[in-house]
Amino acid sequence: MTDAASIATRYIALWNEADQDRRKALLADLWAEAGTYRDPLIQGEGHDQIDALIAGVQGQFPNFRFTVVGQPDGYGDQVRFSWQLGPHGSDGPIKGTDFATLENGRLKSVVGFLDQVPAAA
């Protein structure tokens, strides 16, 4: 049985980890080696590309943190959860929902959807 809350919590911790060595260790523990990530703005395959994507998002939003919104759910090898990105302790201006497929308990693929993005000035 899939523990959606645990997967989502570990996934968000990975996206928030600024130390590259710790982030790479979390990534290796959570993701299958050939795992993929795709959303409307970025995509990557494998640990190195996914790590670079995370570092890029952190560089673009240096004082923002990801948090889980609502209750993650899932069944079988599928997990769904929503998140927000913003300053710590506040309502994030960026929100999304990710759908993950697991393989042997690790992330095989994640497809992200952006539910709320501020309009460009």
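[next item in queue]
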Amino acid sequence: MGRGGRLAALAGAVLSLAGGAVGAESYRDTSVPMTVDDSLQIEPYLGRWYEIARFPVWFEEGCVGVTADYSARPDGRIDVLNTCREGALDGPVETASGVARVVAPGKLQVTFLPRFSWLPFLWGDYWVLDVTDDYTVAVIGAPDGGTGWILARSPQIPDEDFEAAADVLRRNGYDTARLFRVPQDKD
């Protein structure tokens, strides 16, 4: 994807995250109250996460081997670097850089247009629904149900860890039959 394609995808991702995308698909029953891990500590959450599963979103279409890297900034916010391989684990690498902010315990917002972060509609919800005690598996969602992920510190997780994460999504109203398992390199 060329520079213009990346910018268009990035703009679309921001609008989708912000919940303002017209006709955006929801993967959850929004009448089910959403719960977050309000004991989330940011420092142990930082670092690399592998995308184990996601609900389909057009801005990640064709992405495999997806990772997200989070690092602390001096201003208290978090730098975000999302990386995907297009089409195959040895495919071309695409990245998107953004910034996140904590808005409440377990609730973050992310923008991929930080130069315009003063515009409130450019921030999308990124709620940590659950993270294991050892910070090795995390479940992410958004109140509108348009996005959701299972992340892990390693590219592969045991089936029981996957099922436990999927149970968190189900308890939060998500239709886990629509989850896409993301191909990742083996450890």
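[queue empty]
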